[in-house]
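Annotated sample (chain length 390).
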Amino acid sequence: MNRRVFIIVLDSVGIGEMPDAADFGDEGSNTLAAAARSEYFHMPTMRSLGLFNIDGVNCCNGIANPDASYARMAIKSNGKDTTIGHWELSGIVSPRPLPTYPDGFPDEIIDEFSRLTGRKILCNKPYSGTEVIRDYGEEARETGGLIVYTSADSVFQIAANEEDIPIEELYRYCEQARNILKGEHSVGRVIARPYIGDKESGYNRTKNRRDFSIEPPMPTMLDILMNAGLYTIGVGKISDIFAGKGIVKSIKTQGNDDAVAKTIKIADEDFNGLCFVNLVDFDSVYGHRNDVDGYARALSAFDSQLPDLLVKLREEDILIITADHGCDPSTPSTDHSREYVPAIIYGSKILSGINLGTLSTLADIGATVLDYFGVKGDIEGNSILNCINK
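Output written by the structure step:
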């Protein structure tokens, strides 16, 4: 009988500051609690699975007998971004943070990028993604320039108006930037940030974002599963995050609702392996924009779709719902936050109501997945399967 594991990453849904949060400027951050204060927050399905029973989650009441096993997980890596978090979930603990550029990128990087693209480079400093196109959109149209900006994360972001620069051309520029950003300047992601509009009507980012990630420095859970002959499906930006490595099939999505709908459809398919899903809207649309009510609505929407997936799970299936970092929408910062993340593990073969306490690393998820499939692999983390397997 086929075995299937579904991992759903609620991108940025942290559940409270880690002990070293102050070192990252994130003292007091709690993404889930911030969203729970909104009148639009309603997560009965996740409550039934044990989300509010997790240690340290005090924003809502737990229940007596949750349907899943659950844990709080610490991020062991030195970082708090999407790449670091997903790598750790897949078995790589990063002792050094990826490079960041609070003063913008050095001249040699920008000059070489301008030479290769033949375009003027605008901005080159940390900026809000929505504000940067508002402030530089007109100049970009007048000069044909590219808007390059960064954030507190290890990212080189390129914004361009789709009405002036075709999307495939923007992607090519991102590939050129990715080739430049090596060695000490190996940023986690080069991100295409296309938008449309003009000064009069306003600018709006489109859904054609694409991430060009640095390759993982060693094999991940995905590589090991694929090399063992198991089927690996990446939904949303999973393939981008892992630079395509270890992914047999990649499915693009247009937002959270579409990603969940496609995951539900995948649950109708027969395969032996892993379906790895990223729900990016929590982070990119609501967390970074400090939209508390929007974040709450998005969590509630996910919760309302979740029962349609649960009923499709088969006897040998396991569902893991987790996150990669925080992004508290209620703090002055618009950046990621150093927080614990949840782990909900559910399935017919999984014991219900088991509180695993606090796991020391996200890599325990990757180790558990390999253990479930009976595959050996040299990754970080320890399997928790023997603690929760019926």
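Annotation: The chain has a mean pLDDT of 96.
Annotation: The longest strand covers residues 189-198.
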